[in-house]
């Protein structure tokens, strides 16, 4: 089963608990994408087995496609304030073609996870300056090809009840989304053990039992993750990219 579910479209909104002001249109989302041909080393290793070899160009196209499907899910939930931080010109060009803001990532000599978090912070700084009226800020992983706008909208409703909150990945140790409101936006702590790190920083775990939002929780680091996402239903960009693999 391969399909895209993008909800009511880019002009849809999520209404707050009081049924008054739109929530999604006041939320800014920040994503970070590494260099396409160097990204997803674990995925490269498992793709070599699953697809009889790893082509860095084809894998880069897959990484870009997953990013674009993630953006579609956010947009379908009504989020229009989107910024991506990346060192890759192809990512930045694709972002700008889709109407997003693309920021060239500052050079980092820190470990990969520190670089990812630094990129998130760069994007958040720009978002606050560009959209000071935003009431919420989200850091979102860019490899969620099965994510649907329905799940994103549900998370926004749940997140609105807390100053800071997060959603874990499928195994519960990582983080796919971190949300904060007002001055409650926590510092991003993505990387191994990020769920525990965000929890320790005071962020509230949404749906701690992990019963909801399977599509949103499925970030793709291995071919097995990609298989799970495929069962849930992939977005059209990822479906097209997989044809080349």
TrEMBL record:
UniProt-listed GO biological process terms: F420-0 metabolic process
Pathway recorded for this protein: Cofactor biosynthesis; coenzyme F420 biosynthesis
EC number: 2.7.7.105
Highest taxon listed in the record's lineage: Bacteria
Domain MobA-like NTP transferase: 69-172
Reaction(s) the record says it catalyses: phosphoenolpyruvate + GTP + H(+) = enolpyruvoyl-2-diphospho-5'-guanosine + diphosphate
GO molecular function, one term: GTP binding
One Pfam family it belongs to: NTP_transf_3
Binding site for phosphoenolpyruvate: 175, 191, 194
Keywords: GTP-binding, Nucleotide-binding, Nucleotidyltransferase, Transferase
Protein family according to the UniProt entry: Belongs to the CofC family.
Function: Guanylyltransferase that catalyzes the activation of phosphoenolpyruvate (PEP) as enolpyruvoyl-2-diphospho-5'-guanosine, via the condensation of PEP with GTP. It is involved in the biosynthesis of coenzyme F420, a hydride carrier cofactor.
Name of the protein described by the UniProt record: Phosphoenolpyruvate guanylyltransferase
Organism: Gordonia hongkongensis
């Amino acid at each position: 089963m391969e399909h895209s579910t993008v909800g009511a479209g880019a002009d849809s909104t999520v209404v707050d608990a009081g049924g008054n002001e739109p929530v999604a249109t006041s939320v800014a989302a920040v994503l970070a994408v590494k260099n396409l041909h160097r990204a997803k080393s674990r995925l490269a290793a498992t793709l070599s087995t699953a697809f009889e070899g790893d082509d860095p160009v084809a894998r880069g196209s897959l990484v870009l496609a997953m990013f674009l499907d993630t953006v579609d899910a956010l947009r379908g939930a009504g989020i229009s304030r989107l910024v991506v931080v990346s060192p890759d010109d192809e990512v930045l060009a694709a972002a700008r073609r889709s109407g997003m803001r693309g920021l060239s990532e500052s050079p980092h000599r820190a470990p990969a996870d520190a670089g990812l978090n630094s990129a998130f912070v760069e994007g958040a700084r720009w978002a606050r300056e560009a959209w000071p009226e935003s009431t919420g800020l989200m850091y979102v992983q860019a490899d969620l090809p099965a994510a649907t706008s329905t799940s994103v909208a549900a998370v926004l409703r749940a997140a609105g009840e807390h100053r800071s909150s997060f959603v874990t990945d499928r195994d519960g140790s990582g983080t796919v989304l971190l949300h904060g409101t007002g001055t409650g936006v926590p510092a991003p702590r993505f990387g191994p053990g990020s769920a525990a790190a965000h929890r320790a920083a005071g962020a509230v775990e949404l749906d701690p039992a992990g019963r909801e939002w399977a599509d949103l929780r499925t970030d793709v680091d291995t071919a097995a993750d990609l298989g799970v996402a495929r069962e849930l239903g992939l977005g059209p960009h990822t479906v097209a990219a997989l044809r080349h693999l």
